[in-house]
Amino acid sequence: MAGIIDVHHHIMLPEFLALQEERIKRTGYWGLKLTEWTPQWSIDEMDKVGAATSILSISAPGCWTGKVEESRGLARTLNEYTAQLARDYPTRFGFFATIPLPDVEGSLKEIAYALDVLKADGICLLTNYDGVYPGDPKFAPVYDELNRRKAIVYSHPAAVDCCVNMVPGVPIAILEFMFDNTRAIVSLLSNGTFARCPDIRFIFSHCGGALSAVAGRVAGWGRSLGDKAPNGVIPELKRLNFDTASMNNPMTFGALLKLVPPTQIFFGSDFPWGTMGSTKDPMRALGLSAEDLHAIEEGNAHRMFERFRA
Length: 310
Description:
alpha/beta
């Protein structure tokens, strides 16, 4: 089915909202009211812009509630629901499965179930879990297993509690999500995860946050990393993939194109926080060639995701 493929498209189930309500109230996590969601709302939004398929995922703050069994149960509920949607609407929806990190044992079990049984398109991970960043050695078994499977890993930003409301009145999605994206990437780089797990196909949201702006500075520091980045910092960063959500403006997008080619950039809307039209229209005003625009909107996804090669 020809048309835009959106890799950054959220679901908002009542089970997810109810279990996260306490944390959201405590931290002021969003700065705006969470929204109910229905499959038809997404389909209507997709039809407005001629989109073929959306790869569904949950947003921050994820499925971790602080209780192991409860979090495992929530992850399973979310994954089975989105898997059923993908079966009910096979041309319209795929999904990234969620896992109950920082519970490593439960996460490994859910990876196996999601990929082997539910046939998830990949795994959605957050940029930190209770302030622990993804390169931390305690998470190594998860990344090693994802590398063994040559999995697609979609990374969505979160924010650590200490950085909520740092600038009063500015929602965390505006600044902190962008910085946390960058911290997560540097964590995976500096702890050697990128070098150790070269077969994971990472997609980082929001053009990698502030990564393009600080890549040179990170590269200068990264000369000391040795075998954690044996090929050098910039070559490691150049292997990554990114989505366009809320970052399709000439300044940000221009910087990203200095780091990676259009063949490593994917269309992302951040629906329902953003609209697909507000992603599509600015993308088409950036002066990209027809070939590059097609690659970003659908061609790259057809190449990476198995569901589009069947």
